[in-house]
Amino acid sequence: MAICKPLRYGVLMSRRVCLLLAAGTWLGGALHSLLETALTFRLPYGLDTQVGYIFCDIPAVLKLACGDTSLNELVTLVDVGFVAMTCFLLILTSYVYIVSAILRIRSAEGRCRAFSTCAAHLTVVVTYYVPLVFIYLRPGSQDPVDRVVAVFYTTVTPFLNPLIYTLRNKEMKAALMRLIQQCPKLSST
């Protein structure tokens, strides 16, 4: 909205619309989690209670179950696949609109600023969704790389998010450049 209809943004994105979008997101996440949790609780578990991850995620918990987890894996694949595909299609659709709006901007500086905003958002989206899809769309995987990927999307992406958006600020860029220029001076003393 901010790029495609900048003059109407304040009217279209009212407080009510923002609240409805947030409530819809929370409700969707709660329903998604409720489905996965209910299916996970119905499984029988043995004596092995050590999860091979740093957090209890659905694929890791399913590995502890003694019974047949094929229904859980199928539901996880379909559910997460649906959520990931829906998000991907919404993001792709919005970027088609955004790129077409950016290409209509007459000034090179305006296009550059708009692409800068999009690049920061797209970087965060890619660093979150690619590892997430890698983990969830391969149910039952025993690959040790899954642990590294799970740590990546749960720690690296939230760490990068403020860094990426902070570096869009001119004062922060200038401060970072001064710091980088001082680094050779610091190492020679």
Automatic annotation (TrEMBL):
Keywords: Cell membrane, Membrane, Sensory transduction, Transducer, Transmembrane, Transmembrane helix
Superkingdom classification of source: Eukaryota
PROSITE patterns: G_PROTEIN_RECEP_F1_2
Pfam families tied to this protein: 7tm_4 (PF13853)
Source organism of this protein record: Pelodiscus sinensis (Chinese softshell turtle)
Topology class, membrane: Multi-pass membrane protein
Protein name in UniProt: Olfactory receptor 10G6-like
Membrane-spanning parts: 80-103, 115-137, 149-167
GO molecular function: G protein-coupled receptor activity; olfactory receptor activity
InterPro entries: GPCR_Rhodpsn_7TM (IPR017452), Olfact_rcpt (IPR000725)
Positions of the G-protein coupled receptors family 1 profile domain: 1-165
Cellular component, GO annotation: plasma membrane
Major subcellular location class: membrane
Compartments, record wording: Cell membrane
